[in-house]
Amino acid sequence: MTMINVTIKGKNIDAKFGFGALYKANQKFSNHADNGGSLENGAANIFLSLLTGDPGALMKVIQVIIPSEYKEDDYIEAIEELTEGGDKLDEVVTMLKDEMVQSGFFKKAINNQIEAFEENLPMLKANEKMEDQAKSVEAALKLMKENI
Question: pTM value?
Fold first, then answer.
């Protein structure tokens, strides 16, 4: 696993998608079941956000790979610098996506989400009221499989 060099508040930080980042991703960005329990899919949610081109995904990534001692404005400044004011947005998104897939922790989490989508898709398709959700899950599943 390679390191991602991020400058935050003038300090160079070598960040990575290790277990700590996975833990923080699942704590902060997971969906919750009807009973309130975490689905532990925050890492996969971030990956999918990157794949769909959501610029807000960069904030999520930075929040999980950088120590939490920094403030939101510090993260924003780091993203601005990393993307060179947005000029290298696509390049940075591709790099982050590739780093996530190279991480054993994140790859496992993404594959777990793919399996969950595959398991639940037939039930969603069978329920007419869930047709829109089934289409969304099917599109997400295809996108994730193409990029893992």
Answer: 0.87
